[in-house]
Amino acid sequence: MFPRKSFGVRGGGVVFCIGVHSSLVSVSRTFAVRICPDRSDGYLGPMENVLITGANRGIGYALAKALVTTNFRVFAGCRDTEHAVTLEKLSASHRDLLQVLLLDVSSDESVAAAANALSGRVDVIINNAGVMPERGEEKITNIDFDHFRNAFEINVLGCARVIRSFLPHLRRSNRPRILNLSSGLGSIAERDNFNYYAYAVSKAALNMLTRSVAFELAPEGITIVAISPGWVRTDMGGDDADISAEESAEALVEAIQQIGPNLSGQFLDRFGRAGKYVW
Ligand SMILES: NC(=O)c1ccc[n+]([C@@H]2O[C@H](COP(=O)([O-])OP(=O)(O)OC[C@H]3O[C@@H](n4cnc5c(N)ncnc54)[C@H](OP(=O)(O)O)[C@@H]3O)[C@@H](O)[C@H]2O)c1
Predict the structure, then answer these.
(1) What is the pLDDT of residue 46?
(2) pLDDT for 154-191, tens place per residue?
(3) Is 199 a catalytic residue?
(4) The pLDDT of residue 45
(5) What confidence category does residue 5 fall into, taking pLDDT thresholds of 50, 70 and 90?
(6) How many separate domains does the chain show?
(7) Which residue's CA lies nearest to atom 9 of ligand 1?
(8) How many CB atoms lie within 10 A of CB 276?
(9) pLDDT confidence of residue 71
(10) Ligand 1 geometric centre to CA of 58 (Å)
(11) Substitution candidate for ligand 1 out of 82, 90, 128, 155 with most atoms within 8 A of CB
């Protein structure tokens, strides 16, 4: 477990090791706990630990990059650490702040093993890993149920697995938060077409998962939200999307810092605002 009491020290520093199984994490390393730089009035608070799933590309990678430059420590989940070249480069340039973690959200064993590999506190879980399996031109007469199975396995069950396995780590935080990356396509009320059946249905289910978990964990002060990153230029969002992954991540990092129990169970936009999206 992270030495929580050490975080109260001003202007000092503590170094500790996370017990990491070498087969699960590409590089087992020592993290330096950096105490936040002083503001005019002094202490900014402890550095927070963030777990991101699917951090090797797209919004997940942009989030990892933005977070390590905004005073967060990142556990960067990735299902194929052997080929996560860009993420490994980011890790190499932020050795004390970013740890690559083998994490396939479609596998009970992988998620459980990743959670067992971390002995410390997690303040924020970002359930970012996701798939959009279809082309978007399907009709009810020709939809491929394997697309549904794939979308549910990753977009819904993947989030549930991560929450279940990392809940003990989250419970060690003074300000625990979970962000489930949802989508306007998961809004039932705003549905006005028939595109992306499996993806849209899975994100609607994710929204229900979010709302349900919010009620269960509210007594523990755990905040969980569904949050849309916007329409983002990634492999999933395509070249015509509104904003870059960096723009989306910048807004999401702000939201991470702002959200609390008053917003738990809500469907937020990337700025952390309720009201734009309806269930
Ligand atoms: N882009 C948009 O406009 C948009 C809009 C609304 C919501 N979202 C949501 O935002 C999230 C990120 O989207 P994106 O645009 O960054 O997508 P992306 O570019 O397609 O990246 C998806 C990420 O998820 C990972 N992933 C997929 N299956 C996984 C698994 N089983 N275990 C672990 N990681 C897995 C991928 O890893 P690999 O490289 O190994 O495949 C990749 O890192 C998704 O949940 C998506 O639904 C995106």
Answers:
(1) 74
(2) 999 999 999 999 999 999 999 999 999 999 999 999 99
(3) yes
(4) 58
(5) very low
(6) 1
(7) 181
(8) 13
(9) 87
(10) 7
(11) 128
For residue 248, pLDDT over 60 is answered with yes
Q: How many CB atoms lie within 10 A of CB 138?
A: 16
Determine, yes or no, domain membership for 129: yes
Domain containing 258 equals 46-268
Q: Is the pLDDT of residue 123 over 90?
A: yes
pLDDT of 222 above 60: yes
The answer to whether 2 and 121 have CB atoms below 8 angstroms apart is yes
Report the pocket of ligand 1 as residue ranges, CB < 6 Å: 53-54, 56-60, 79-80, 103-106, 128-131, 154, 181, 183, 228-229, 231-232, 234-237, 241
Residue identifier of the C-alpha nearest atom 46 of ligand 1: 130
CA 59 to ligand 1 centroid distance, Å: 7
Q: Which residues contact 133 (CB under 8 A, 6 or more apart)?
A: 144, 146, 147, 150, 151, 198, 199
Euclidean distance between CA atoms 98 and 83, whole angstroms: 17
Rounded-to-integer distance, Cα 82 and Cα 85, Å: 8
179, part of any domain:
yes
Residue 11 resides in a domain: no
Largest CA distance in the chain: 64
Instruction: Give the helix, strand, coil percentages of the chain, each rounded to 5.
Output: 40, 20, 45
Residue 120 lies in a domain: yes
For residue 174, what is the domain's CATH number?
Answer: 3.40.50.720
Average pLDDT, the chain: 86
Closest CA to 263 of 279, 275, 249, 251: 275
pLDDT in tens, 131-141: 999 999 899 99
